[in-house]
Amino acid sequence: MRIVIAEDDALLREGLALLLRAEGLEVLATTDGPGTFLAAVEEHRPDVAIVDVRMPPTHTDEGIVAAVEARRRQPGLAVLVLSAYVEQAFATDLLAGGSSGLGYLLKERVGRVEEFLAALERVASGGTAVDPEVVGQLLARPRPYDTLGSLSAREREVLALMAEGLGNSAIAERLFVTDGAVHKHIRSIFAKLGLAPDDRADRRVTAVLRYLEK
After folding, report:
1. Which DSSP helix (H) or strand (E) runs through 168?
2. In this structure, is residue 173 part of a structural domain?
3. What is the predicted pLDDT for the residue at 94?
4. Can you give the residue range of the structural domain that contains 151?
5. Which residues make Cβ contacts (< 8 Å) with residue 195, sequence separation at least 6?
């Protein structure tokens, strides 16, 4: 796995690079701003980019903007975005163009090395990794027209685990139910949210984010 890191905090940036190299992964470049990050992506053509949400000069949404631009320049580039705390709008903006090969994690997750590496591997393989805290806040946020209102409590549990990137077997193990039961819940979720089979590539995460649509 070939990686470029964009993080303006020098300690975290170098810590990430050391961690990944210790795991046998190839860190091609570490950068501290959106401009140098995009230049590094152009030069090295990495498999995955790890990007901080907030970077210079304004420390607002530069990371998200750079991540979206990097994927425009290099279609198929996997991107794992790191944030100090849950920023719902940024998570939604990132996933708006499709969920394949995208992740959004809180920085505290990096300290849980196995979880972080599993999320990175999932994103690099074309999957999705959304931090459980982000999922929890998205699902809990009240809305006047909540498209998730028709889901049962169990379906909402399954939906939250889907958005974390867990497969059906892992969800079954977490909830102490059979794979068949999970498959049935997921079919019901898709049906209630009007997600057709031809939306297969994105509908697992679309199901979580559907209620955010205006």
Report:
1. helix 168-175
2. yes
3. 64
4. 142-212
5. 189, 203, 206, 207, 210
pLDDT tens by residue, 168-184:
898 999 999 999 899 88
Dist. CA 54–CA 87, nearest whole Å = 11
ω into 57 cis (within 30 of 0): yes
Q: Which of 131, 163, 198 is the last residue of a domain?
A: 131
pLDDT in tens, 183-198: 888 888 888 887 766 5
Assign residue 183 the CATH number of its domain. Answer: 1.10.10.10
Amino acid present at 57: P
Closest CA to 209 of 109, 128, 121, 108: 128
Length of the chain equals 214
Q: Residue 55 corresponds to which tokens in the numbers above?
A: 């970077």
Q: What is the pLDDT of residues 78-94, one digit of tens each?
A: 999 888 876 656 666 66
The dihedral of CA 6, 12, 13, 19: what is its sign?
Answer: negative
Q: How high is the mean pLDDT of the chain?
A: 81
104 within some domain: yes
Distances (CA, A) of 131 to 42, 74, 128, 161: 28, 25, 10, 10
Q: What is the pLDDT of residues 110-143, one digit of tens each?
A: 888 888 899 999 999 988 887 777 666 655 554 4
